[in-house]
Amino acid sequence: MRHADHAGTVLLRRLRRGTELDAEHAGTGAGAAGRQPGADTPGDPGTGPAPVARAGTEPGAGDTDPVREPVRADPTPAVPEEDDDTLTSIPVISATQPTPQAAPATTDPDPGPDASARARALLVPVADQRAPEPAPDVAPVLPGMPAAARPRVQAPSGEPADETGPPCPWCEVGNRPDRHFCRRCGMSLAERPGVPEARRPWWRRMRDFGNGPTPWAGERPRLRRGIGRIFTWLAYGLALGLVIYAAFNVSTAWNAARDHFAKRAQISPDAADASRSFKDHPPKALFDKINNSWWGPGVSQSGEGEWVEARFQEPTRLLDILITSGISTKPSDLSEAALPHRMDAVVTTADGKKTTRHLKLDQVSGPQQRKFRAQNVVSVRFIIRSAFNVGADKQVSIAEIEFFTRATTSGT
């Protein structure tokens, strides 16, 4: 833009000078035309026109004034093409000849609208010729804080085949047979691209709920349809039902766990009763903790329907029972009486609810242990249904019945 401003300034300066010269030449020509050849005095060299030499006279023989050509006024000055502030249209006057005084010319400081318009038309916009500054190769950094070197990213390239073995299905680089992942790309060597994985059975897929493999980009997951999907929902429903059942039976499960690991302690009933009893063998003999005393109904054969009952004043939690068949624990006494085979145990709780349990005994001597889990028990009635070794001269005999509950010293 500096060159454009300078060029415009030079043009305006030249136009102004040309306008001044045109005005001066016009004034000089008008004064010469208005005067007569003999009107000026010879003594005033600045007001009259230059003398013209006549024919036949010698130069220098009387008239010593130099001869000047009249200057013709040109309304349109020629603009030189060179970038020079001087004008070539100024006439050159010899230094030896005196210069007549020119008539004062009226100069107009304003060149006029036509000159300004021509100057603006001659202005040519010039682009900035300054060369752009080159960008620095290295960015400036603060003193004492050097810039960290940029990491060099290298594309994966083939490595020397220093390991022999099956090639990787992803990058085809050899790997040892004991490797599970590729030594270069890290992909699994057990999978091959484009080959679908074998479908596992349903009981293995249940453990992977929510941990399925992530599909590849652009891969559409397989739609699960058919009867297998129905079985899956049934399995989920069953699992949900078990969870709900467990939530409502937490206390029962907790008590069962405590009963399994708790220590046992023997407990005796507060009262006993029976449908009938043999002489000198009352029902209390079943709970006296002595094995050589027994109870019998006093009737022969199997004694079906006969019963004996144990009562507790306070509700009691029972865990196990021990039943000793016969009249003693000696094996030689087994043939002396009939032995109970099947019995029904009717359990009555504190709320009046009755539950029947079936007991099946063996034809052996000594106590026989059976699980008998019940809580808040107030009475237990044993009803005889069948017997071993029955006869017309034999009656059913039971030597001992023992009850066991949680031990208070077990800490449970």
UniProtKB/TrEMBL annotation:
Membrane-crossing residue ranges in chain numbering: 230-248
Span list, region Disordered: 1-115
Coiled-coil positions: none
Transmembrane helix recorded as keyword: yes
InterPro entries found in the cross-reference section: Galactose-bd-like_sf, NADase_transloc
Signal peptide: none
Keywords: Membrane, Transmembrane, Transmembrane helix
Entry keyword annotation includes Transmembrane: yes
Ranges of biased composition (kind: Low complexity): 33-51, 94-115
NCBIfam families: NADase_discoid
Protein name as catalogued: Zinc ribbon domain-containing protein
Species name: Streptomyces pratensis (strain ATCC 33331 / IAF-45CD)
